[in-house]
Each structure stands twice: as C-alpha cells, then as structure tokens.
Write a structure and sequence with these properties.
The protein is an all-alpha fold and about 250 residues long. The protein has one domain. About 75% of the residues lie in helices and about 0% in strands. Helix 1 packs across helix 4 and helix 5 packs across helix 8. The protein is globular, with a radius of gyration of 18 Å.
C-alpha cells in the first residue's frame, strides 16, 4: 500500500500548461482550490470505505481471505496507470469515475489499518500527517524559491524507499523497516511542498473557459491524485513509526 507513490505521474503531465480558450484569465487560485477539493473528496471516500469495512468483519473476511484481496490490492495501481497514460483520451466523466474507484479501493485496502492499530494511534498519526501536510503545502504555495532541484532529490529518495521496501520484503528486518519509515516521512513531507509549487505553476497557465474547461478539470483530478498519494504515504510512514498495535 505504502508504495503506490512509486507510480507517480511523470512531470511532463504537470509542466506549464496553457489551454486555448475564448479569453486569457489567470485562474491559479481557482485551479488550486479545485485540486484540494478533489483531494479532500478522495480522502473522504477512502475514510468512509475504510470505516465501513473495518466495522464489518464479515466483509473483511470476504475480501481479505479470498482471491478478491488481490483485486483490491492491485486495483489502485491499475487505476493510476489508466489515468496517467489515458488523460488525453479519457473524458472528464471517466476520469472522475476512475478517481472515485481509486479512492474506494484505497479505502478498502487501508481498512486493515483500523484493525491492526489502536483508534488513538490512527487519529494521532492522521492529525500529525494533516498538520505536516498543511505546513508544507503552505510553504510550497507561498515560497519564491524554486524547488525543482529539491524535488529531484526527493524523487530519488522515493525510488530508494521503493527499492529498499522490496528488498525488505524478503529480509524482514524490523530495523530496516524503521529506517525506511523515517526516510519516508522526510521524503513525502518534502514532496508535498514540491508538488504544491508545481501544481501552482500549472494553474497559472490554465483557463477554465471555452475549449480548455475539460482539460483543466482533468488536470485538477490528476493534481488531486498526486497530493492524495503524498498525504496517504506520509500517514502510512507515521503510523509505521508511532502506531500502537492492538493486543
């Protein structure tokens, strides 16, 4: 679960993007508001389905003790790929549906966390992740410093986390897991600032009028998906470090 972010959309999807419309109107703030609304909607959907499944043991058994668990585990990855490579061909309606399905399957996958960790740990780590995400998002939005080089370093760190996590699947080292989680917190915190700055630049080149409306909405969804992954991975790293397990 925590490695879904390895499939981040390439930066070419988020380079300066200008849509031709009937008039030139800067809408950076409107675009960013749309991105965050989509992100919050996705998190809300995931939280709802995580709670529904964690509260119903028969549902949990039906999903996680049958081959259906592989569908739930791999579906978010598939949705990411389809959205990433199909953004130019998919309609806004289809992008919206895929985003909702992604959020649903992520919520079902994350439901196991509510059974493994105590409610206090989940709430505490979620609150901490929210505060860290908010601070770094504000920093990324307001800073005048170009974070491009910083973002490349964070992305290299992300690749390192993915490789180390794969290796640790075979080693099973608790110490390595602890180190990966510490580095993961730093990486996803830094990526939040970088991604928000990059998305702000995207918004500066988009107008929501005329023929550009559909393209702008699709980019809003993709931007929300990117920030969603930053937040979820930050939360997962924090709960691996500080989460208290149920007896």
């Amino acid at each position: 679960m925590e490695n879904y972010n390895q499939n981040r959309f390439g930066d070419n999807r988020f380079s300066d993007y200008t849509v031709v419309g009937s008039s030139a109107r800067p809408v950076s703030k409107t675009y960013m508001a749309s991105v965050f609304l989509w992100m919050f909607a996705g998190l809300g959907i995931s939280a709802l389905f995580a709670f529904i499944f964690a509260s119903n043991m028969s549902l949990m058994m039906e999903v996680f003790t049958t081959p259906l668990r592989w569908v739930i585990m791999l579906a978010p990855f598939a949705f990411l790929l389809v959205m990433q490579f199909g953004i130019q061909r998919l309609s806004v309606g289809m992008m919206t549906l895929l985003f909702i399905l992604f959020s649903v399957t992520m919520g079902i996958s994350l439901s196991a966390i509510l059974l493994v960790y105590t409610a206090g740990s989940v709430i505490g780590c979620f609150t901490a992740a929210s505060a860290m995400f908010g601070v770094m998002a504000l920093l990324g939005y307001t800073t005048d410093k170009d974070l491009t080089s910083f973002g490349r370093i964070m992305f290299m760190g992300l690749i390192g986390i993915v490789i180390a996590s794969l290796i640790n699947m075979f080693i099973g080292s608790s110490r390595m897991d602890y180190i990966i989680s510490i580095i993961g917190v730093a990486v996803f915190t830094g990526l939040t600032a970088y991604d928000v700055q990059m998305l702000k630049r995207v918004g500066a080149g988009i107008e929501y009028e005329g023929t550009g409306a559909a393209e702008a909405k699709k980019l809003s969804i993709m931007g929300a998906l990117r920030l969603y992954l930053d937040f979820i991975n930050l939360f997962l790293m924090l709960i691996r470090l500080f989460g208290g397990r149920r007896n």
